Amino acid sequence: MSWPDEEWKVGLPAQALRAVLELEQRLERLQKEGRQKQVQLDTLEAVMYKQRQKVSGEGGHPTEGAPAPIQTWPGVEISRKGPS
């Protein structure tokens, strides 16, 4: 994260500057991870919406019959569970 005005850092001891840099890097990493998680969530919601539309278009109810797998991205599969 780059502060518009970084003058507040002037005069800080080296240890404090390192700590500030580490915190700024951690913040950037966590923000990036948050954006990636949001993209994954949006993708899953879109897939779920399409799957529900497909099931309702077939005249069935989402809980009837065998659960239909939802393919998201390579290596990740989520299955909707029917009534127990």
Automatic annotation (TrEMBL):
Residue span(s) of domain Centromere protein Cenp-F N-terminal: 1-58
Single GO biological process annotation from the record: mitotic cell cycle
One Pfam assignment: CENP-F_N
Keywords, comma-separated and alphabetical: Coiled coil
InterPro entries (alphabetical): Cenp-F, Centromere_CenpF_N
Protein's name according to its UniProt entry: Centromere protein Cenp-F N-terminal domain-containing protein
Coiled coil: 20-47
GO CC term (a single one): spindle pole
Top-level taxon of the source organism: Eukaryota
Region (Disordered): 53-84
Molecular function in Gene Ontology: dynein complex binding; microtubule binding
